[in-house]
UniProtKB/TrEMBL annotation:
SUPFAM superfamilies: ALDH-like. Belongs to the aldehyde dehydrogenase family. This is AL3B1 dehydrogenase. Keywords: Oxidoreductase. GO terms for biological process: aldehyde metabolic process. The gene is Aldh3b1_1. Residues 19-188, 192-353 form the Aldehyde dehydrogenase domain.
Amino acid sequence: NPYGGLVSHLRASWLSGKTRPMEYRVAQLEALGRFLDDKKQEILEATELDMGKPPFEAFFSEILLCKNELNVTLNNLSQWMKDEHVDKNLVMQLDSAFIRKEPYGVVLIIAPWNYPIHLFLVPLIGAIAAGNCAVIKPSEISKNTERLIAETLSCYLDNDCFAVVTGGVPETTRLLENKFDYIFFTGEKLMPALREAITEFFGPNPRESPDFGRIVSDKQFRRLRALLGSGRVALGGQTDEAERYIAPTVLADVLPSDPAMQEEIFGPILPIVVIANMDEAIDFINARPRPLALYAFSCDSKIVNQVLERTSSGGFCGNDTLMHLTLTKLPFGGIGNSGLGKYHGKFTFDTFSHHRGCLHRNMGLETLNSPRYPPYTQQKLGLLTTTFEVKRRGTCTLL
């Protein structure tokens, strides 16, 4: 296997205990901060070349939010690393019971292309904070960002513990043959309002707007263009393969069986499926794999809450999109087919930490263990029941 030696080298580094001290973790995290500071302009240029992402958007999503994540982690790491002491039963009051946060070992982070810096760096922050070694696989689709990460990240991180692997599906397949301890993989009346919003954001011709991006690759462009055959183009629909340009497009009369409803779109295409009532909308959502995020819009908070309570998704945002991503106190991640693991702030640290249950008993109190040993008697059973049994709390009704 072409990556066997690399993974073995990282594992040897992890087994040496090098990544466990807090000082080491802090040093590597601070190095990531320097990477963001030093390469800020190159990150903005790479994301603009890859998908035409405006520098304004790229700074917010790829740099500022990552810096926030980094600083939250650095500010709290010493507290997160502490043993978490837990309640004990009567017999073990003089013993020590706790949860220790241990690194998994060598982890693999596979990043998607749509937020190519954010979605590799935030998991990496948590992996480092938890004391792991890591292999980072940036998306080959965002080729300029991939090149930037591959060529520069090694200048900042310890190469004995962290490595970048590039390539497409064949390379990823071979990479996955190695043993990793954890793998982190994140109606018509509407049309005038949508048309007005698009014009307000991008002007009468979005193609000429510096704030409207392009599709990341020829393959993705062709995939998205094929989706335009779903339903009827009610707004937009213009394309230019040479520029990889697809206008902001709204599809009406879309059927649940249409191609646009069978996959994540990752492009400027909005399919509209008409439903009769709230119950039908809930049933429609629940009949499909649980999404990474679910958005509900309504002036009536009861409707938003109803969607929240009766559905399941990785994350939820009412009356907005994406903004739950900006809060480091909220976990971000999928459920079921939409992803495994959650991250942001302490959630990232916990995701990449094994919570090890520990009990350290006092050898001087061995006589207290005698009721557990043969010969068994009813008296011993009664004593054990009294000391180990957990009772339900009583309830009280005030009249």
